[in-house]
Amino acid sequence: MEKIKEYLKHIKISSIIIYTLLSWFIIAFLVYPNINLILKTFIKDGQVSLRAFEKLFSSKRAMMSLRNSFVLAFSMIITVNIVGTFIVLVTEYFEIKGAKILKIGFMSTLVYAGIVLVAGYQFLYSSNGFLAKVLSDLIPSYNVDWFVGYKAVLFIMTFACTSNHMIFLSNAIRNIDHGTIEAAKNMGASQFLILKKVVLPVLKPTFFSITVLTFLTGLSALSAPIVVGGKSFQTINPMILQFSKSPVSRDIGALMAIILGIATLLLLIIMNRVEKGGNYISISKVKTRIIKQKINSRLVNIIIHLVAYLLFIIYIAPMLLVIVFSFTNTIAINTVDLSFSNFSLSNYMLLFTRRGAFEPYLVSIVYSMSAAVIVAIICLVASNIIHKKEGKVGTILEFLLLIPWLLPATLIAMGLIMTYDLPKTILFNKNLVGSPLLMLSAYVIVTLPFSLRMLKAAYFGLDNALVDASKSMGASGFYTFRRVILPILLPTVLAVIVLSFNKLLPNYDLSVFLYHPAYKPLGIVIKTATEQESPGDSKAIMFVYSVILMIISTIAIYFFYGRNTKRK
Amino acid sequence: MKKSLQIMLMLIIAASMSLYAGGQTEMDEAEDQGMHKDKLVIYTNSGSNGRDQWITDLANQNGFNITVVEGGGGDIFNRLIAEKNSPIADVAFGLNMLNFAELKKQDILMKYKPDWASEVDSSMKDADDYYHGIVKQAIVLVYNPDVYTKETAPKDWPDLWQKSEYHGQYNIFGLGGGTSRTVLASIAMRYLDSNGELGISAEGWEEIKQYIQNGYMNADGEDYIQNLVDKKIPMTMLWGSGVIDKQEAYSTVLGVMSPEIGVPFVVEQVGVLEGTDSPDTAKAFVNWFGSSEVQAAWAQEFGTAPANSVSMKSAKAEAVELDKVLSKAQYIDWAFVLENVNQWVEKIELEFVE
Amino acid sequence: MIKFENVVIKYDEFVAINDFNLEIKEGEFFTLLGPSGCGKTTLLRSIVGFIDIFSGRIKVNDEDVTHLPTEKRNIGIVFQSYALFPTMNVFENIAFGLKVNKLSKEEVKKEVYEIARKVDLNETQLFRNVSELSGGQQQRVAIARALVLKPKILCLDEPLSNLDAKLRGQLRQELKKLQRDFGITTIYVTHDQEEALTLSDRIAVFNKGNLEQIGTPHEIYNKSQSEFVCDFIGDINKITGSAIDTINSLSEVKFDRNKTAFLRTERVLTVCDDKKYIKLKAEIIDFEYNGIFTRYYYQMNDNIIMNIEKNDGSDYSSIGEKIDLYINPADIKQF
Question: Does the structure's ipTM exceed the value 0.95?
Fold first, then answer.
């Protein structure tokens, strides 16, 4: 009894408030609407319907697509990690001439992603694309039809999904203690051995996180397989999207999504296990900053330079083409005609002279940025708890926050509408549908798992003695968090914010269900203007919008991330 | 850095607050503008290419204060269904009869008969006056006239898979969209069997399987018209106003198939939503929007074919021309199609698509 | 000042500290000494409040602080890793605690400069990033950061390990001087017996979670109360078997031949005319020249005995030479 009293005396009100808020958020936005949707999907006329299982497992196409998704995801774990690690090493670890320019090229995927990126690659490599037109005259044996199926999809996905490496792995490499490299050198280790035994092991937690994300990206690949997969390599996500939009087939869509989600969680559990086993914190008292390593072997040096610049061209070429052709028209794009007469500013004029052309930008920027910041805050609080409480509480919390991985965006949106279309006690009897906050909450929900994963990895690199030191000087938990932990995590937090922002900016799937009539987001405008069914120069307009998105994203990266890392 | 971050945060919070507050007042308070005080929210899938702005401006001049919410056809439809308990929209237009029939079934529509209802053919509107047609789209097969002449081109949809020379030469749109579903309905209508699976005879399913497996399904974002022009896939399904648009955009001429049995029509509808806060204004808007003058102006501007027989006379010359070619409509039992189309698509997607 | 009453610390089922009692006096430099894993750091962390104790009480100035959170105890700590905040410069690191206590800008500045002067950090160093400092400078920042808050108690967790010998010696003196100047009750954790002996007013020697002995450096060294303390502190000769027989035959005090006897190396003499000393015959088998002194190794029966000779100009002995050793039986300890 005494003990309990004493215990209660030491629970702080502030932490009660934080726990309450967090639990409320999780229940109101992650658990309740999604469970509600799943129940409504699988329970028909008061009975659990298992027809989705039968339908799914007896469909050859569905099983094939599912298999392809897994093949792609596992292939990507290998290829993306290889390419991603290579480009990070040549920009951060080895002394490579022109590393700064290379870096800009490799960073391009941060501002250039999704359907636009696929269109760029398609435009460059496909049978009636740029390269085919140029090369088939020069090299008669050039196979113009190579860019289709598994290899084309893997090619695009490999180069498209290295953003996480460029940000998080680069961060991690910059934090390596140079002393450890020198020590290894001193003990006679070769450059390769140092890389393998000293550098890469320290990067393990980052690799784990990136691998999980890469796997997930591979499983849920959408644009690349649709555009270049051809008949031979279709994946499951396009089917999920289509089925989740059809009222009778929604259960099949949900089931497929849940299968993908469970696979991702399984991988995550394995990674968490491995992650817990190691120590990755530098224990040196005096860390020295990493100095770029010169490659000793002349031959290797030349090869690495060549590969680096080849990759640079692969990264930058489709993007440049998109920029160049955004000034032409659809016919010029289709026929890859670069004649001067085709160039004009009319596409840009069209988009900006229309009345109300600017509001969607403002709406999307405000929504995406607010959501990104809110998510960062939630994830900071949550990963703090997960980090402190290594037991059950932390694990449960972590998995609850990963729920959005289990469902496609469309169903998350539907779950929100179907649950909060009437006043509910948990939302203080407010009606979320019809409120501008509806879309904001959905934006927050879908970006949670990614942000959490990256921030959690950052927490692993945090020295606990710093927290102890701060407390011993009289700082409260919150003060410690604000002044000590946050500044250390800031580069990761900013990176997470920027990446979420860029991802949300052109969002369509969620927005179309949830946007408030007065605030039309950019994704809607882009989608309706670029759909094949809409009259007008749809292809050229899509290129124009992608250029505009690139510009906004670049500004965001510079403002939030670029300046900060330069200061260091 | 810290400073600028704080400023950013403050800005975001301020912007979000104003977003929220703005949303509330704009929704609640009526503005003293025009004769209709209530603000209307209009859902549509045909707002692209400046159509939303055009209609907003014209409505404004006529005393309506409207906000257009746009999105893909399926998405807008799903949104209407999901928001059933708490509707945001007052009026919806542009969705086809299939969609509107479902909305009616789910009690999402309000009964209202506009003045111009009689000018629309009864096959293009709801018998119970829940929705009425505004724009009709003939769904056709178009071909590259350099590849096929009028004689060598297919005469009806079944030719495509029954004659091997057409195998792999025709493009099918994704089955999520209205155009592709209408073609499916057109085919299915020929093989009705109340004892068959999902109302279609075994023979019918075999035909549909052949139709799907011998066709080419364009990828999302793939330019099927360019494929047609390049003679790669020289035939594709298309909607009526698209024939006019694409000929213009690709400076080409398209051959149009005109089957004996008639062409299926998709008719875009307009209706007032149950649960609107301003039923009178909403009805007044529908009455104005569907009227022959507005529809004629719309048709002139965007090359559509009005369902309203009066406005059809003043549509674009090309549209009038096309309308003559496709004068015969194929009979389609929409109620039956509505009942089954989602299951058909599911079956096709899971079993036939390769 | 600080009182441990029946303190038990447990990690799950493992008992790190069992039923521990201790009182540390005001202004005392108190050292917790022992090999790694003996529980000394655990104890230190429990004083600061990083570790919850399982049972018992910790009192500071008769106030029970057992359940007081760290930030309210006003106990400074310097970590083995220093735990300087990498995102702040030296000034910000030192000013951290002052800002927590909401001192005005001028006061903060005044206090930081004052303490910086005392620990010998100049103004340019104050505005450097902590990663640009040498180990010694970092340590001084860590100490300044703790001292600037004028804590009642200062805890130091092996702050001198990982430093080179010269720097250690220098900082050791500085540390002692600072402690004396500020008069702060200091609790020092180390596994280095030399450090403990030079710095401390009193020392507590730990082994495997148990307190072996508490006393002044002199008491600990000269009046070791256990075999462990005796062995752990300083250089010592272990005498066994036939050597004990030889000693017993010459000495009035008799020793148990079945137990190990201990004798400090500096208590073995080669020249002596004191009657209390007994003479033993031995042969030099090895030596280590050390500059100030030389350590000789002698064969005596089956034992090897060491002693230390100051290099004060007297003759060197060479290997193989026969020599007489003088020892006082009163210096021999058995436990």
Answer: no
